[in-house]
Amino acid sequence: MLVITNWKMNPLSLSQAYKLLDFYQKLNYKIWVAPPFLFLQDLIKKYPDFIFGVQNIYFEKRGAYTGEISPWMVKNIGGKFTIINHSERRKLKEDLKIANLKLKSALKANLISVVCFGEDNIIKDKQSLIKEWNKEYKILFRDLNINSFKNKIIIAYEPSWAISTAKIGPVPKEQVVLFINWIKKRFRGKILYGGSVFPENIENYLDISLDGFLIGSHSLKPKNFRIIIEKIKKFSIIK
Ligand code: PEP
Asked: How many angstroms does the Cα of residue 5 sit away from the middle of ligand 1?
């Protein structure tokens, strides 16, 4: 199972990032890591056994875009993937049209895109939920045949309301299954779940047809992250 960690704006120093990766190394599991940009180059050199990527990119290749990072820059220093359309970017007013441009740009730069997908608010009615997903899908993947990039796009079902900081997640298992069934009719690549994945609930999601998890806050808590990885490993052996 694929495990991608989103460190968000943590930790505050490179030495703390080393500490966390030294710990990850002991887990003996292939983990993909999205640290802050500033640490990326150093971590890529020091930890060749991990796959590193970024939490965000800009959609232009180069030019007068103060403060932005080009996907080609990420690629050229050895980054392998970028997260796109994370709900914390959407909170900063990044909309689906921008996410669509970013996705096209990442594909051109040959970076793998971990595309976050999902409704912003809790929707209990199934038909309304599917309507919302259809709407999002249309804008996010406009002008793209995503199946022709099925090795370059990973879709993470991660509704904003389910992220740990929202304190009301995770998504009930039946709803994740509904999403998987819906998205599999449209996309043949890897599907992950993200949103308040904790040691106490990871088992809920292990026996449904997911390819892995996108994990935020608990990827920064060694004790908890160890339990999550151990449970995933145990499940993979049984399977
Ligand atoms: C995330 O930031 O992508 C995420 C899933 O966060 P958390 O695990 O903290 O909900």
From this structure: 8
